[in-house]
Amino acid sequence: MKIVILAGGPAQSFESLIKMDKNFDQAFYVGVDRGSFRLMQAGFPVNLAIGDFDSLSAEEFSAVLAYADEYHKSPTEKNDTDLELAVLAVLTRFQNIEEILILGGIGGRFDHQIQIFYLPLQSRFSTIVDKIILRDETNSIRFVSAGQYQLLKEPQMTYLAFASLTPVKALAIKGAKYALAATDFDRNLSLSSNEFINEQPVTLSFKKGMVAIIQSKDESK
């Protein structure tokens, strides 16, 4: 099952980002707070609407309730964010998740962005670390635990970067414009502005830790 979660942050061109996947019409759609209203306006399903909905007017909230297959209204004051509640709801519904695409999660308030970026570190989400994708118009972010990975260049992206969420051991990069021999990093790292060479695969490997793989491009002018 592919999951599309539209959060309440900036989500410019989210329709085209969803439609990049040819099987987008078979996904399970979750709208978080105002994300549910945006999905409805764009003509996508809202299989689940979740949040405190404090960003919607009474009329907009009523429209979402009538449109959504299911909704869960959370209290304004709570321990989990609405996005965390959305991911938890997905985990309780599906055992075999292929991908969780989160849109509207980056590009807005930094405190929200950094919490979403560190979401894979929570032990309750440990089984889906490699399923989570954060995406906007200029960035695509995936998360991986220790192992070896062959990375392919995503269409229209220019740069390749790596940012650790933890200390890492024996991090190595092969096949990129800037290679790296196996190196230990005892604190979080950010290795940016790397590139693919003629769209050839890049190999990333490390023996301990968690790393975000970031493909990006400059903003359109």
Give me the count of strands: 12
Question: Rough shape?
Answer: globular
Low-confidence stretches: none
Distance between the termini: 36 Å
Helix content: 10-25%
The main pleated sheet reads as: 12 strands, mixed
Mean pLDDT: 93
Number of helices: 5
Given helix and strand content, the structural type is: alpha/beta
> What is the rounded Rg?
18 Å
Question: From N to C, what is the helix and strand string?
Answer: EHEHEHEHEHEEEEEEE
Strand content: 35-45%
State the gist of this model.
With 221 residues, this protein is an alpha/beta fold. It has helices spanning 14-19, 34-42, 58-67, 82-93, 110-117; strands at residues 2-6, 28-32, 48-51, 71-73, 99-103, 132-135, 139-151, 159-164, 168-174, 180-185, 190-194, 202-216.
Secondary structure layout plus pairing:
Layout: E1 2-6, H1 14-19, E2 28-32, H2 34-42, E3 48-51, H3 58-67, E4 71-73, H4 82-93, E5 99-103, H5 110-117, E6 132-135, E7 139-151, E8 159-164, E9 168-174, E10 180-185, E11 190-194, E12 202-216
Parallel strand pairs: 1-2, 1-5, 2-3, 3-4, 5-6
Antiparallel strand pairs: 6-7, 7-12, 8-11, 8-12, 9-10, 9-12
